[in-house]
Amino acid sequence: MPRRQVIAALGIVLVTALAVAAFTDAARSGEGQAARSNLTMIAPAAAGGGWDLVAREAQQAVRTGNVVNTVQVVNIPGAAGTIGLNQLAGLAGEETTMMVTGTVMLGGISQSGSAISLQDTTPIARLAEDFEVVAVPADSPFRTLEDLLGAWARDPAALPIGGGSAGGIDHMVAAQLAQARGVPVERMVYTPHPGGGELTLSLLSTAAGTVGVGISGYNDFRDLVESGQLRVLAVVAPERLAGVDAPTMDELGLPGVDLVNWRGLVAPAGIGPQARAELEQITREMVATESWDEAVTRNRWVRSEAYGEEFERFLVSEQRRIDDLLKELGLA
């Protein structure tokens, strides 16, 4: 392995190790205290991505709404959120910690064959739906999604597609697009990135090995879209996103490209009924705050709240659906 790659790999390991240590310390600091006093929110990804955004918005909402006294966010990046999931599994019975989860983690669990799943957590709530977009640099020759798909179909290997973790929702959307246009999934070149920040850097770079097309949640690209540095070609959503001048996949005649990224919260396994009820109540109060309402509007989310048994049933059916979809798409 080249020296630069070795250094980069060691850097990733070191960052992950430090994040895990910080998380363990943060979680232990809450032992014996009620969640109303000291709450830890895990974002199982690097800062700047979708999970981090949800965690930070939740932190702001419970702070400004006086829902809890102290809340801290801890980032544990890696492996489509499954590193964070494994750390959460080690905190069985810890009542003052919640972790952000969603579609990406289900894909990571399925593709990695992880022995730990969301069935090994305490489901708290589904919060909202977040929508994917296909974006290119402002100076890209692709003015429409049809321009891009035409070039991709002619030579898939010449057009790498950038996104988040392998097997995650960005990867699945890329595979759905490939299927819709008759591009063999095995010929698709998908370049995973550890977070939205790294993906946007790649999109804006002209260096070798970077990508010219990105698929991710809109909010990963929002600032660069609003500043005119990136252009959205299409949105994967039932309706157009407010303030985003780009058609839906349905409008473009691609109804089979339809994956929606939901966001939710889970707690460690083994917490008691009272502790679970308290975390659910904290979440209900959080989503009722003005701060959370503003976050939903600002981030173009759609509320889809579910608690208790309804959320538990959803997690089981959603994992089954993602497992089947990854197999259908040739990604598992």
Automatic annotation (TrEMBL):
The keyword Signal applies. Pfam families: TctC. Keywords: Signal. Residues 1-21 form the signal peptide. Belongs to the UPF0065 (bug) family. This is Tripartite tricarboxylate transporter substrate-binding protein. It comes from the Bacteria.
